Amino acid sequence: MRVIGIMRLYDHYRFRWLTRQAAKGSKGKSATGESPTLALDDSWTKDYFGGDPMKTADRVRFCP
User: Fold this and answer.
1) Structural domain for 16, as ranges
2) What torsion do the CA atoms of 51, 53, 55, 57 make, to the nearest 10 degrees?
3) pLDDT tens digit string along 9-55?
4) Which of these, 15, 30, 33, 55, has the minimum number of CB atoms within 10 Å of its CB?
5) How many domains does the chain contain in total?
């Protein structure tokens, strides 16, 4: 039960941090300044396999 509580707390603060980062700059937005949309292919996965260190760490942490 403690692990679930810790992960909920972690997810909450990580979401807040990512939201703050997006508000500071254009991270999370396209080159035109629009909000991102869902990709119809698997192009979004490249960041989780070595493209972005933070996203790669998230993948490795939860899928050993």
Assistant:
1) 1-28
2) 130
3) 888 888 888 788 777 765 455 555 556 677 889 888 888 898 888 88
4) 33
5) 1
Q: What is the largest CA-CA distance in the chain?
A: 44
Following DSSP, what letter does each residue of 5-62 receive, concatenated? Answer: HHHHHHHHHHHHHHHHHHHHSSTTS-TTSPPP---SSSGGGGGGGTTSHHHHHHHHHH
Residue type for 43, please?
S
pTM, two decimals, is 0.44
Q: Cα–Cα distance between 26 and 32 in angstroms, integer?
A: 10
What does the block give as tokens for 38?
């869902």
Neighbours of 13 (CB within 10 A): 9
